[in-house]
Amino acid sequence: MEQLSVTRQSRAPRLGNILQTTLILSAVALGCLAFTSCGGQNKAAPAPMGPMPVSVTKVQQADVALTGQWVGTIDGFINAQIQPQVSGYLIRQKYQEGSVVSKGQILFEIDPRPFEALVDQAKGQVEQAQGQVAQAQAQVAQAQAQLGLAQINVNRDTPLAQARAVAQSQLDNDKQQAAQAEAAVRSAQANVRSAQAAVTAAQAALETAKLNLGFTHVRSLIDGVAGQATTQVGNLVSPQSVLTSVSQLNPLKVYFSISDTEYLSLIRQARQSGGDLLAGKSNVPLTLTLANGQVYPQKGRVVWVDRQMNEQTGAIRLAASFANPGNVLRPGQFARISANTEVRRNAMLVPQVAVLDMQGIKQVYTVGPDTKVHVVNVKLGPEYGTDWVIDSGIAPGTAVITDNLQKLREGAPVSPQEKPAAAVAPTSSAKEPAGD
Q: Are residues 414 and 355 in the same domain?
C-alpha cells in the first residue's frame, strides 16, 4: 500500500505538466492563425497579364528548285561470272582476290595434258587427210592419162573405120574405153574433193582441240575487280562451275526507283535541258550521298529506264552512271540519289516551326492588324530546306508566328516582334511532306 501511494504521488506532477504544455501550444496556434488571416487581408491582388510577346516572320515568295531524293543500290556497270569452257582439274589460281584485273588476264589454269594429247591427235588426222588428198589427186592424173590415150585411139580409128581399113567393132571398143576413162576421171576428182573435205574437217578438229587447250587458261573478259574464288585448286570443274566474278567499277551503276509523278518531272526536266531520259541521254545531274552523309564529288546521269511501272508500288526503276576513280565505291552499297525535279515559280515559303498538325490538319498562327492571333488552315507542298512550300491557304506577306504556339489560341492578343526571314537557298533539298 505504501508503494502504491508513492507511485500515484509521483505521476500527479507529470500529468499536470503535460496539460499545461498542451494549453500553451493551443494558444500559440490560435494566435498564429489570427495573425495569418489578418495579414492575408492586407495582400494586393495579382496584376492582369499583358499581350504575349511572340516572334513573327512574313511569308516569302520565291522561285525554288525542288529536289527529289531516293534510296539507291550500287552495282557494277558490268558483272561477269567467270566460268571455264572445258572440264578438268584446277591446278593453279593466278590472281589475288579483290585485286584489279585486266581483260585477257589469266585467272585460273586447268590441267592441260588431256587437251594437248587431243591437239596432237588432231594434227595427225590433218596430215592423214592431206595424204589422202595427194593420193586422190594422183588417181585423177592417172585417169586423165588413160582418158587421153583412149581419145587418141578413137581419133585414129574413126577415119580408118570409115575407110573400112579397120573393123567397126574396134572403133566401138575404143569409144567404150574412152567413156570408161572419162568416168574414172570424174570418180577420181570426186575422191579428191572428198579427201579435201576430210582435210577441212581434220583442220577444224585441230582448231577445236587448240581452242580447248587455250580454254585451260581461264581469262577475264573485262577490266574490273575480281572477287573471291569460289572453287579451290584441285577441284574438278566444268562449264557449269562458277570460279569467281569480275565487276567493272569505273564507271558503276546505281539502281533506284521513283514515283510516277517524279518520273514525269524528270522527263520534263531532261527535255528542257536538251536531253532525252528515255534514250539514256539525260542532262539532269544526279547527286550521290553516301551512307556516312558525305556527298560524292562525281555527278551522275540516268542511263537506263525500265520498260514499265511496277503496278504494286506505282514506281519505275532507273539506273544512273557515276564515275568511280580508284574503285572506292563497291557493289552492294546503299546511297541516296537526289536530283532537281522541278523549279516552282513564286512559291510561298513558311518556316517549318510555324506549322502545327492538328489531327491531320496543317495550321499556322497569323497576326493581323489587330495584333490578335488568327488560326489559318493551309495545304502543304514539298519541304524546302527549313521551310514548307505552301500550296494554298495563305497569302504572301502574311505575318506568321514562329514561337510560343502551344500557349496561343484564336483571338488572343499578342505583341509581335518581327524577325528577318532567312535567305532562300537555291540548292536546298526538298522532300514531300509526310501527310497533308
A: yes
